[in-house]
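Follow-up to my post from last week.
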Amino acid sequence: MMNTDVFFYLIQVFIGITLIASAIVAIRFRNLIAAVIAMAVFSLALSLEFFILQAPDVAIAEAGVGAGLTTAMYLLAIRNTTDEEEVAE
Amino acid sequence: MTTVIIRTMTRILTPAILVFGSYIILHGHLTPGGGFQGGAVFASGLALLIIAFSRKRVKEMFEKVPLSVFESIGALGFLGIGLMGIVMYTFLRNFIANSGAPFGMPTPEGINPGFLNTGGTLPYLNIFVGLKVLAGLTSIVLILFLILRREENE
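User reply:
Got it. Predicted complex:
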């Protein structure tokens, strides 16, 4: 039987690790579509954190705008150009 | 351009997303979320539709949808509800509450599960804000899609 506070504490630690990992991965990826998906994972983890901190309003807005619409806009912009980042000389 | 997997999942998921967005807008005065959040969820469902299908299909789908008219109705409706309140007493006065009109049922006292038919002008304001937000965000994605030139040449 797990205490609820301990459970939420563990989830928050997990979310923090996910946020940092997905942010680093989004910067490091050479393939731009993979980087955009990493950004979407970042937004999703952030909205879960908002929900745990008892701000469901902000969580819904973050999930809708952050994970849905900006990802769509990035994908459309990448489709118009190339999806591989050029390596700086 | 897109794969069969994306198109099939879009066909399955889009109705659910649109219903969920409408639910958030309509229950704005009872549950978390409101006009902006519901409109953003609804617009992300339509953005999924825009991304998954080809340029020709998207043009067919959105040719008959007057998004700019929806956006104007949203802004003018919000202002109209506010100005109707000014006739009664002051700007944005809740003149529908407890009047028996739609969304005007008297709210019972004490702890209750929340009734949809309450709230007065708030559900109307949520609906207008949701209409404006979904039309605006969808038209941004749609314009970004329609200025693409690469797919036209293929």
